Structure formats: structure tokens, C-alpha cells
Amino acid sequence: MSRQRLGQHFLAKSSLLDRIAHAACPEPEPLVIEIGPGHGALTGRLVPRSERLVAIEIDSALVERLRTKFGGDPRVTILHADALETDLAQWGPAVIAGNLPYYAATPVIEKTLSVNFLRAVFLVQKEVAARLVATPGSRNYGYLSIRTQLFANIEALFDIPPSAFRPPPKVDSTVVRLRPQNRAAELDIQDPVRFLAFVSRCFRQKRKTLRNNLATVFAKDVLDRLPLAGQRAEALTIWQFADLYRLLYHREPGGQKP
Ligand code: SAM
After folding, report:
1. Per-residue pLDDT at 1 exceeds 80
2. Is residue 41 within 6 Å of ligand 1 at its C-beta?
3. What pLDDT shows up at residue 253?
4. pTM score, whole prediction
5. CATH 3.90.700.10 given to domain 186-251
6. How many A from CA of 41 to the centre of ligand 1?
7. So what CATH class is 10-181?
8. With a 6 A CB cut-off, is 59 part of the ligand 1 pocket?
């Protein structure tokens, strides 16, 4: 993969690196996993805030430089690996942080949500941040918003302009913080994978009503009796999706496959 494809835009502004490190670890943490450490600018600020830091970098040239820079520090492990192929749960509950390559932001966040993370702070493309934190009625609200908000409380902390990076990217960035929150339990959803498949179907064609998006799966009379069937998915809260899901799948013996 080319350097550009790997998202190698290095954050150069010291005060912003400090803010990200502080957001990730306001207090010292037992374990921090950093995704994509690059030249180690954020790593250097996370090390004093963690008892152990594992930094996962895919680029072998950068790994060599990182090993030279942090090699003598017993708290630091530099892992030469693809973070998308790495089991992030293997070291136990961790704070996860990183200035994410843009192509990998969504899959890294998905991976984070599937492990026992203590807190996660990521720098992502501003548009991705808008989708992660979006609420009903916003044009950014969609499957990714529900997917994320089912397992985390998420906040957009601050924006970073292209000029803060070397070389500057073409887009604005935003730092987001995720805290684990098992909303599936609160919503009484036993099978989150199945629930998310249902949500994905509801958003299949954003401009269409729920009735239209669900017409291939449910009979007309079922949809005619369904509250909110005339609405678009983008208008529904996560609670309303959960109500619909329970109505459609739980109350019918055997349910139907989403
Ligand atoms: N953290 C550094 C900073 O803030 O200056 C660098 C961030 S740069 C946006 C993204 C980094 O992630 C690069 O060092 C790139 O090589 C690395 N990277 C890209 N894809 C990766 C992957 N799949 N697994 C691990 N690292 C990856």
C-alpha cells in the first residue's frame, strides 16, 4: 500500500498532541493500545500516561524508527502488524487511541466496539465523526451512528485543520472519544448482530419509508399494522428501532430472518 493510502499525515502540533493524550488518559492507565503510531509523536505523550503501551504499526520503515526511539523502554511494545488483523483483546481491557488512517477509521472503530475497551480516543475525518455522533433527523444519521451508539457513548471533542499535519490532508479532522456503554442490554436486545442487520435493512434506501425498505422481508399486513411504517429510518431513535425490532422478531414464534 502506498504511503498516501496508509494515511500517513503526521500530526505536528504539539498542543494538539497533548490534548489527544490527555483525552485518552486523563489519569495514568494500566494499558494503552495505540493504532498507527507513525513517527511516535502521540506515542511519546501516551507513554508517561500508561504502565504499558502497545503500539501497532503496519509500515516496516516506521516500525524500525519506533523501535530505535522506544526500544529501551520496557513499558513499550512496538508491534509490526496490521491493526485490522490484530486481536485487540489479547492484552486485556485497554484504552485504545490513535490518529487513524482515514481508510481504516470505520473498521478500527468497529473492532474497538467488539472488545472490552476502557475508553477510546481517535482522530478521524470530520465527516466520519459527524456520522458517528449523529442523532435522528440529521442527514449524517445512519447505520454507523446506531452501530456505534449501541455500544458506546460518543462525543466529538475538537476539530483539527489540515495545516496541523505534515503533509496536510485534503480534509478536516475531528477527535472523538468513546466510552463503553452496553445499550443493547438497556434496550433488551439479546442478539445485537441480528438487531443491527435489521437496522441496516431499515436504512437500505435512505429516502424510502420503513414500509418500502422492509417490504421484501415482511408481509404487507404485518407492515400495515406496524407503528411508524410510513416514516423514514432517519427519523427514528435507537429506542424506536428497538421497539420495532421486538415487535417484528420477538413476538412472532421463530421470528423472521432480517
Ligand atoms: N500517530 C501518528 C501521528 O499522529 O502523527 C501517525 C498517524 S497517520 C494518520 C496513520 C498511521 O497509521 C501511519 O503511520 C500508517 O503507517 C499507520 N497505518 C495505516 N494503516 C494501518 C494498519 N492497518 N495497521 C496499523 N497501522 C496502520
Report:
1. no
2. yes
3. 41
4. 0.94
5. no
6. 11
7. alpha beta
8. yes
